[in-house]
């Protein structure tokens, strides 16, 4: 019988936050910068997005230790126009750059109604939904995106030239569940293909191609090939649009100019992000917005479920319910992640 994976450990949000901040401080970040990073990653864990939560201490930590990420980034924000912000991340930890860009876009939107921040010289910034939630809680609707290392072939192509670039949308509900949509451009993550390989199972031929660009049901061939985008050529076009905004317009790297943090952990990635925020309070009262958002959700929920065990939901409801539950009961964290956090937290600061 194979040895079973350890059960997750449950830890209170406040305790995990303190531990995460200590761990990033020991990796060389100033206290406020560490707090920004941890706010995003703890929110990811609260949502149940464990792959993008504090488990990222492993990859971020390794790159901080080999000089691939700057622990003392001096982030600069320029305002070339009233509603437009340019954020130079100085090769800082991605969620730190992301939080600076989010705040810059929020400030611009509060003044102009709409605020846009383009960030460059950044790194992997976690999932998008935490930023969408922070913005929504402050009354802003948002469209947020980032580019990524190339894992997708151009539509009809035979080599990886397009990133699995995520995009997210959020609309606040002042009296109910915020709308939160956070998605990458591939049909599935590579982790799902790796799991199929371990289990000795075939995969649907809509998930990936082999190295020659042909759809495959073999997880091994898929891992040697490329992920397929959602919606075929439409997903390919959407991935390019995200990279044009996040990479090209931000003056960051784009497409194959983005370095792989796996292949070159000691090199700056120069990832780019964009944050487009709308101050909903300029459109109407909070009561007006709440009534319309609740009606919007009611219309969706009113559709009879094809499977009674799976009622119709609005994007974000699963994550927000999980967050409420884990705030009460503690955050489920992989035991190995907790051990690594403690090891960093107890280490002598860099």
TrEMBL record:
InterPro entries given for it? Answer: Mal/L-sulf/L-lact_DH-like_ah (IPR043144), Mal/L-sulf/L-lact_DH-like_NADP (IPR043143), Mal/L-sulfo/L-lacto_DH-like_sf (IPR036111), Malate/L-lactate_DH-like (IPR003767)
The question of whether Membrane is a record keyword is answered with: no
List its EC numbers: 1.1.1.-
> Which controlled-vocabulary keywords does the entry list?
Oxidoreductase
Q: Does the keyword Oxidoreductase apply?
A: yes
One Gene Ontology molecular-function label:
oxidoreductase activity
Q: What EC class does the entry list?
A: oxidoreductase
- What family does the entry list? Belongs to the LDH2/MDH2 oxidoreductase family.
PANTHER family to which the protein is assigned, alphabetical: MALATE DEHYDROGENASE, OXIDOREDUCTASE-RELATED
Q: What is this protein called?
A: Putative oxidoreductase YjmC
Q: Which organism is it from?
A: Achromobacter anxifer
